[in-house]
Design goal:
single chain, alpha+beta, HIT family, subunit A, ten-stranded antiparallel beta sheet, 7 helices, 15 strands, globular
Length: 348
């Protein structure tokens, strides 16, 4: 019988359509995931002059900016959603509020290799990518106009990717996004009521129950959330409480690289390399100015950063848009079992 499940984090209901239960082999929406190419890629090594001037690159090896020899490279998005220059100029007209579209929009070129996807990368290289994310967050939070920095990846046409070359995007906004704000509200409410982190409580229960766990080790847990919106949706949490991804040590990023690669590889094998999105949900920028009284004052104690991976194997249609409910035809318990049972291996 179908179930309605409520997420204690997002305060959102989903429908787990158990009567439609589908296995990995039942999904075929990802067959056309590559965009036709004319053979030229501006992100490939040697084409540095075909992108906007780089903002950041790793490793630091004495190379001149915008030349070959990099492992990751960060450039401004050529068609940014928000502009970095200018003032917010918050204003209103009756019931309508608006401001200038100020923010940052950057592209992290993940590797010089055009066809090397995250799930197949050497662990050391994935650590460099995560270090790049951390470095860009630490730089962007110094801009007090910005309240939130989102790191996200689109893989495949169905997930919104415009270029095949492996890349991630960073968008910094002058407001806290509604989805993240709801997580913050839920986390703060739970903490004020119980003096415990909501996410830590969920992890303790999930590890005890085991049925939605994909993988678990000393440092990270990967699981299919109780109220999954999408089939095989997978979240990765640090086991030790932490509100700020940017505070992660090099050692922790090493273990995160393994957990992220492992999860992406399991999804790729189980679903035959589906399109997917992942997002890094981090704490908002506490350096931002014009903070309201009490603005996330318990943040260090109640929020818990995490990564959400969402394979794009079903379509969001009229019911979802009209109600805000998602219909998931694969129970997360079943999805987690499939992903646990997948055999994965890497050259390193």
């Amino acid at each position: 019988m179908p179930e309605l499940r409520k997420s204690p984090i997002a305060n959102r209901w989903v429908i787990i359509a158990t009567d439609r239960a589908r296995r990995p082999s039942d999904f075929h929406l990802h067959t056309e995931q590559r965009r036709p190419s004319d053979g030229f890629c501006p992100f490939c090594e040697g084409n540095e002059d075909k992108t906007p001037p780089e903002i950041f690159a790793l490793p630091y090896n004495g190379r001149k900016p915008n030349t070959p020899g990099w492992q990751t490279r960060v450039v401004p998005n050529r068609f940014p959603a928000l502009a970095i220059e200018g003032n917010l100029d918050r204003r209103g007209n009756g019931l309508f509020d608006y401001m200038n579209g100020i923010g940052a929009h950057e592209v992290v070129i993940e590797t010089p290799q055009h066809d090397l996807e995250m799930g197949d990368m050497p662990l050391a290289h994935l650590e460099i990518i995560l270090s790049t994310y951390r470095a860009r967050i630490l730089d962007l939070v110094n801009d007090m106009r910005l309240r939130y920095i989102l790191i996200f990846k689109n893989f495949g046409l169905a997930a919104g990717a415009s270029l095949e070359h492996p890349h991630t995007q960073i968008i910094a906004t002058p407001i806290t996004p509604r989805v993240v704000k709801q997580e913050l509200i839920s986390a703060q409410s739970h903490f004020l009521d119980k003096e415990r982190c909501l996410f830590c409580d969920i992890l303790a229960q999930e590890i005890k129950d085991e049925e939605r766990i994909v993988s678990v080790n000393e440092h990270f847990v990967a699981l299919c959330p109780f109220a999954s919106r999408f089939p095989f949706e997978t979240w990765i949490f640090p086991r030790k409480h932490s509100a700020h991804f940017s505070c992660s040590s090099d050692e922790l990023l090493h273990h995160l690289a393994f957990a992220l690669r492992d999860s992406l590889k399991r999804i790729s094998v189980a679903l035959e390399s589906p399109p997917y999105n992942f997002v890094l949900h981090n704490s908002p920028n506490i350096k931002g100015k014009a903070r309201r009284p009490g603005y996330w004052q318990t943040l260090d104690l109640d929020y818990h950063w995490h990564i959400e991976i969402m394979p794009r194997v079903t379509k969001v249609a009229g019911f979802e848009w009209g109600t805000g409910f998602y219909i998931n035809p694969t129970p997360p318990e079943q999805a987690a079992k499939y992903l646990r049972d997948v055999e994965v291996s890497w050259p390193d």
